[in-house]
Design brief:
The chain is of the alpha+beta class and 388 residues long. It contains 13 helices and ten strands. Helix 2 runs parallel beside helix 4, helix 4 runs antiparallel to helix 5 and helix 11 runs antiparallel to helix 12. The longest helix is centred in the first third of the chain and has 33 residues.
């Protein structure tokens, strides 16, 4: 080995003509630094092709250093450092392969069939980082369910209901994962998906609302071709912080998720049955999408705590697709809700009338408020001098 090292060194450095030799202590320092550097570079999140390229350049630089030293009559033996580099690379690659196999198993257990192929592939090959330890994620939670589900279940046979519900769940889950969502649950209680997890996305709220509007549109268009499906799609959207992480001690590993947006989104989805809307979202979601989505306020509802009051909004159209008539009707509805909250019944009733669309367009939230207002306006008409 010493003879091979001497021959290799002789190719780039002249030992016989050297006046000084780099001592063993400096060789040990170089070996230690090189081993640590290569190991860190290989095990870091740097893409593998970049790390290997850097290691290759480092290898060339060792021989270049030996040659430069020879110009100053200093003999530097590069072979010990080269061997340290090669051994460190081999050990780090082996350890990295072991970790990737363990990480790949964890990723497959947690995310198989719950992400799009693109997102899942990024987690498997490591191009997309994921920390299995519990941490906080900023997400938008979308929960979808089939409208008038209970009435539908009473009016048809169990087998037909199960088939129609299964089709709804499958189509909704496929659409959500295709658009980059993580599919948390899909069963008879609805479809639950997270945008912004496990891959962070600063525009998760915009994507969540856009996908919900697209699904509502596609569902209405396809409802005529699917006679077995009755009702409409309902959705609840809530944005905020959740805690998510892998429970590695369980067999198989499970994904723990918890947070207020999950509970709120489920509640908003159910509230659609009360107001007649198709989708409801909270104020944090509305604040993030107000420039790209035309939405209107619906009501204040109690939060998870008894003292909380949350304002909910109904997304109607993408701003790019909304016509001036759509915006005008939304503005009239918004003004009417404000007047209603101020108990100016007659003015609110007039503004709601302006928010009406064509006769064939059903607006259940508008009818909800008109039913509330009609007895109050009638009372005003019968007793004009009575203060309400």
């Amino acid at each position: 080995m010493a003879g091979v090292g001497a021959v290799a060194a002789q190719l780039v450095s002249d030992y016989a003509g050297a006046t000084r030799v780099v001592g063993e202590k400096w060789q040990y320092v170089f070996i230690l630094l090189i081993a640590l550097g290569v190991s860190w570079l290989t095990l870091s999140n740097v893409p593998r092709w970049r790390s290997r390229l850097l290691v290759g350049l480092f290898l060339v630089e060792l021989f270049a250093l030996s040659w430069v030293c020879s110009l100053y009559r200093i003999f530097f033996q590069p072979i010990p450092s080269v061997l340290a580099l090669v051994f460190a690379l081999a050990i780090a690659e082996g350890w990295s392969a072991f970790l990737r196999r363990d990480r790949s198993h964890l990723v497959r257990t947690l995310f198989a069939d719950r992400l799009s192929k693109k997102e899942f592939r990024g987690l498997i090959d490591g191009t997309t980082s994921f920390d299995a330890e519990p941490k906080v994620y900023d997400v938008s939670v979308v929960i979808c369910d089939l409208g008038k589900k209970l009435a539908f279940a009473k009016d048809c046979e169990a087998a037909a209901f199960a088939e129609a519900t299964s089709k709804f769940i499958r189509q909704t889950a496929e659409q959500l994962t295709k658009e980059g969502a993580y599919l948390h649950a899909a069963d008879g209680e609805g479809v639950v998906a997270f945008f912004g997890f496990p891959v962070p996305n600063s525009e998760h709220a915009q994507k969540a609302v856009r996908v919900v509007l697209d699904m509502m549109k596609n569902f209405r268009e396809g409802r005529g071709r699917n006679e077995e499906i009755s009702g409409d799609i309902l959705a609840g959207i809530s944005s905020g912080m959740i805690i998510a992480g892998a429970l590695k001690d369980s067999q198989p590993p499970l994904l723990l998720t918890s947070g207020e947006p999950i509970e709120l989104a489920r509640r908003f989805c159910a509230l659609n049955n009360l107001y007649g809307s198709n989708a409801l979202m909270d104020t944090p979601t509305f604040d993030r999408v107000s420039e790209t989505v035309v939405a209107r306020p619906i009501d204040f509802v109690g939060g998870l705590n008894s003292h909380d009051r949350l304002e909910i909004y109904e997304p109607l159209w993408l701003a790019a697709e909304a016509t001036p008539e759509h915006v005008a009707r939304r503005d009239s509805f918004w003004s009417a809700v404000v007047l209603y909250r101020e108990k100016r019944w007659a003015e609110a009733y007039s503004e709601f009338q302006k928010a009406r669309g064509s006769e064939e367009q059903e607006d259940a939230p508008l009818q909800f408020y008109l039913r509330r207002l009609e007895p109050l306006v009638l009372q005003l008409t019968e007793s004009p001098f009575e203060s309400i």
